[in-house]
Amino acid sequence: MASPALISDTDQWKALQAHVGAIHKTHLRDLMTDADRCKAMTAEFEGVYLDYSRQQATTETIDKLFKLAEAAKLKEKIDKMFKGEKINTTENRSVLHVALRAPRDAVINSDGVNVVPEVWAVKDKIKQFSETFRSGSWVGATGKPLTNVVSVGIGGSFLGPLFVHTALQTDPEAAEAAKGRQLRFLANVDPVDVARSIKDLDPATTLVVVVSKTFTTAETMLNARTIKEWIVSSLGPQAVSKHMIAVSTNLKLVKEFGIDPNNAFAFWDWVGGRYSVCSAVGVLPLSLQYGFPIVQKFLEGASSIDNHVHTSSFEKNIPVLLGLLSVWNVSFLGYPARAILPYCQALEKLAPHIQQLSMESNGKGVSIDGVRLPFEAGEIDFGEPGTNGQHSFYQLIHQGRVIPCDFIGVIKSQQPVYLKGETVSNHDELMSNFFAQPDALAYGKTPEQLHSEKVPENLIPHKTFQGNRPSLSFLLSSLSAYEIGQLLSIYEHRIAVQGFIWGINSFDQWGVELGKSLASTVRKQLHASRMEGKPVEGFNPSSASLLTRFLAVKPSTPYDTTVLPKV
Ligand SMILES: O=P(O)(O)OC[C@H]1O[C@](O)(CO)[C@@H](O)[C@@H]1O
Question: What is the pLDDT of residue 4?
Fold first, then answer.
């Protein structure tokens, strides 16, 4: 019999739907008393420890999820990805970000060609370039060595590298390697972001890396032209070859922009933008800042998880378990959001990166075969480091809506601090919260407990916590480049697993196109109105009056002269 078009038509999906009633009769307060269950609901790989016992699930749920994985042909789909099959069918592309961190002797084919040597050729070029740059042998137009890097790019050409940079900044080894250097990012086309990114920088000591897979993204290209002007107006047009380099799959456009092709670093269409941090997109700016050896450790961490996801049985497979549990929470328990809560300030840019990774990958309305989904796929990701989040949105998580949480803790802080005489070290203070919050969510507090504490009657409803709120806890042994790579790869694979189960294409992003083309219509109108005084035409009444109001105020930057930020 032909396999059903949608996963929701399978018996395994229906068995999970039928199982929801039984789970609704349980409470985590009771489930957590079962020591065998708690032990069974853990997994460990190379120092990454996952405890998912605080999920609204029993071992029976997990068995049923494994059966769903079988029905979705999860193992086959993961294998196909690793084999370079064109699983991104709407763009006819392989999905091979795993090749970016594979060892030199690995063989991974796309279109019958082993891509690993090409990957390493670019990495070798980055290594050599970054060594020349960091040694001071690469000098700018005025003969000075360059110590500042501004990476210009948006979306996947920004968020992943920003996440890794932020996480490395306080790692002692990486911090030592980055002494005296600055790495900044320019993503938003808002001129305020231009101003911020170059504030107090001297073009004579700055290298600009233009990062764009397509080299056509409107925001990035305008920012690149703006920063080019900043360099040229200060150092002259010949400075571009020494002060601007690029990362792209479109080397033709890089050349047309005026960047020396020798200073361009390639990647390939089989690397999705949001999966590209391990390509030159991340490896180049990070190597300029921290040196290639540290970035190589990050790649090795990511590769270790690639191996793990590809070869481990599902029972021990951290990304597979995570992906299945997310499907359970979203599609069966009906919890549409996920909070990413690292108890580690170095991971403050993890949630913004995962937002793109997850929501651009799995925010789809049709199956990979184009059939409208009768269920919601994807989830709403957000997060903040603890304990900051506790003083912000946790109220809603404790007593308002049910939001499954990822708690991420690190055993050994990057920055140990202890004040003699204090009860605990600063990191232990942080981690006290990391351990307490999941239990507060799971157990809650009953009216009976409040009565026994003599809480006034009128406050009992306000102080009651229903509990039974799901979370999972990760403990990482430490947070160096290697573990940062592991964490990245865990989330990348988890999100792909979710997409494989839902039967969607997690590797295209057609949903971003409509807004882009409408912006181009508006851009034409703004130009015509500003330059030729043309009236606003062809828009709905709402947009027309908004645009008219906007255009009525004379801009502070007249269109007949170049103006750069002044701060
Ligand atoms: O690297 P590019 O081609 O400039 O694209 C930037 C981003 O734009 C998108 O295409 C849409 O947001 C992302 O997928 C991508 O990461």
Answer: 56
